[in-house]
Amino acid sequence: MLVAVGGGVVGDVAGFVAASYARGVGLVHIPTTLVAQVDSAIGGKTGVNLPEGKNLVGAFYPPKLVVADPELLRTLPQREFRSGIYEIIKYGVIGDAKLFQFLEQKMEKLLRRDPAALDFVIERSIYQKARVVSLDERESGLREILNFGHTFAHALESVTRYRKYLHGEAVAWGMVAATYLAIASGPFSPKDAARLIRLIERVGPLPPWPSASPARLIAAMQADKKTRAGRLRFVLPERIGGVRCGVEAHPQILALVLRECASAGLRK
């Protein structure tokens, strides 16, 4: 049995090894970051990066056990902690409006790592991830909603060679970009869009948008696993608590969204 103690990278690599060695050995995750506790340790996706893109070599391999102990987060650096909150916001947008409202009301408590607030958001996020994965273990349908913000995020990570953003920070920018695209594509309301962007801003400063051109970012997105026949497909919000999958974007609108992100007035 292989026991993975650490963050998302440790879990992904250890999970890939466990899936491959002797055609599969037992796997236990003990995630020590907020991102890992609410997201990457749950669901059985393992993988490693290639120069061409993120997680392009991997396997679906569920662990025997996941131990998500909030006490392990007490020594987590603040930037790493904030990175996990962005993934929790994602869960609120894709299917849990009550979680989103809780974040709006209790963000300051959560940032202080209040135990009750932490227990609530970790449990709700794990439930959401487990529910989706149990219905679609191998990402053939419903599970695609978990990729909200990630098509943009993976491109941001790739063009900056994984050195500028923590994963949650890239997802935060990805959700902002997806929000702009959803406004352009409809029917996401400007009011809900403002709520989402305001909540992201309240988490704390983000590394700035990269200097990469829209063409370079779009090219990076083409390597994303969700691309079909060369066509980019996005998960876009329709309301707080619901998204739609497989949305294609006109290249000109997509380039406009990327330029808008580059000039966005988010706190930096």
Measure the end-to-end span: 43 Å
CATH class of the largest domain: Mainly Alpha
Total of helices:
10
Return the average pLDDT rounded to an integer. 93
Roughly how much helix do the residues carry, as a percent range? 40-55%
**CATH-assigned fold name of the largest domain:** Dehydroquinate synthase-like, alpha domain
Sketch the major β-sheet: 3 strands, parallel
Q: State the total count of DSSP E strands.
A: 7
Coarse morphology: globular
CATH architecture of the largest domain: Up-down Bundle
Domain tally: 2
The secondary-structure class comes to alpha/beta
Q: Which parts are unreliable, with pLDDT below 50 for 5 consecutive residues or more?
A: none
Describe this structure in words.
The structure is a single chain. The chain is globular and about 50 Å long. The N and C termini lie far apart (43 Å). The mean pLDDT is 93. It is 51% helix and 14% strand. α2 packs parallel to α5 (115-135), α3 (78-95) runs antiparallel to α4 and α9 packs across α10. With 268 residues, it is of the alpha/beta class. It has a three-stranded parallel sheet with strand order 1-2-5. It has a two-stranded antiparallel ribbon with strand order 3-4. It has a two-stranded antiparallel sheet with strand order 6-7. It is built from ten helices and seven strands. The protein has two domains: 2-72, Rossmann fold; 80-262, Dehydroquinate synthase-like - alpha domain (Dehydroquinate synthase-like, alpha domain, Up-down Bundle).
